[in-house]
Design brief:
With 282 residues, the protein is of the alpha/beta class. 29% of the residues lie in helices and 12% in strands.
Length: 282
């Protein structure tokens, strides 16, 4: 299974015994949207609701922290998702939350994972079938946790990198928040960015219909942002969500060693001791 699948492909595979479809929708608080209620109102037939907003380590000092291995294993067991399953993730979110779910599943050892190109919005636009109501997977025994944190960076890592510049930092937020021209109202913080970071707004990676742009266009977008794709990369954003969109786009380009700064600006910008820059990338 490819990492990015079309609505046509998924329609032909629905009902396969080894296929699990996951709704990973989550929304910014200002949107006043309830992803669980929206799932119950209409979802792709057979889909399961991930509840991505609660799949985090609430005990961590990092805002919106990645879940622990045990937390992840418990959620997969509850949904009935095993390591041999083919998994297709979709969302209906302005911030493309399926990429965050993709990163979490991959770092926890699930490799046969794909995103639905265009999400449920494209599925609906094509008039494809929908289901109503809650959906519950058949619970299975929790499998041994296998988290791999090598592609995750901490604040300490990023502070060290400000001096070494061994890894390029790419910020997925809009230009206003990155430059500091506008405040980061989402996280109630001033705008600005990690010193030395480059800016590539995650929304620039999508076509008008919500599908990912071609590989050539994705590569060009990174290069216009001043990114050397042959060098190590760390992605950042507001809270680790849209940074995962950059990671998925890099994956489509064959780059799987890029890392996520999970704390992102919600952690960095809130710490008065961390260095910060404003203005365009230098």
């Amino acid at each position: 299974m490819d990492s990015l699948v079309s609505t046509k492909w998924l329609a032909g595979e629905l009902g396969a015994s080894d296929l699990k479809v996951i709704d990973a929708s989550a929304h910014l608080p200002a949107k006043n949207r309830d992803p669980r209620a929206e799932f119950a109102a209409a979802h792709i037939p057979g889909a399961l609701f991930l509840d991505l907003g609660s799949l985090k380590d609430a005990g961590s000092p990092v805002p919106n922290a990645l879940p622990t291995a045990a937390q992840f294993a418990e959620r997969m067991a509850k949904l009935g998702i095993g390591r041999d399953d083919r998994i297709v993730i979709y969302d209906d979110s302005d911030v493309k939350t399926s990429s965050r779910a993709w990163f979490i599943l991959r770092m926890n050892g699930l490799r046969n994972v794909a995103l639905l190109d265009g999400g449920i919005a494209k599925w609906k636009a094509e008039g494809r079938p929908l289901e109503r109501g809650e959906a519950f997977g058949e619970s299975i025994a929790a499998q041994e946790a296998q988290s791999d944190w090598r592609n995750v960076r901490s604040k300490t890592d990023v502070i060290a990198n400000v001096d070494s510049r061994a890894e390029q930092v790419i910020d997925a937020r809009d230009a206003g928040r990155f430059t500091g021209e506008t405040p980061d109202t989402i996280h109630n913080l001033p705008g600005g960015h990690i010193p030395g970071a480059r800016n590539l707004f995650f929304g620039d990676l999508f076509a008008a219909d919500g599908t990912f742009k071609s590989k050539g266009d994705l590569r060009a977008a990174f290069e216009r942002a001043g990114v050397d794709l042959s060098r190590p990369i760390v992605t950042s954003c507001g809270s680790g969500v849209t940074a995962s969109v950059l990671l998925f786009a890099l994956h489509l380009l064959g780059i799987d060693d890029a890392a996520l700064y999970d704390g992102s600006w919600s952690e960095w910008g809130a710490d008065p001791a961390t260095p910060k820059e404003t203005g365009v990338a230098r």
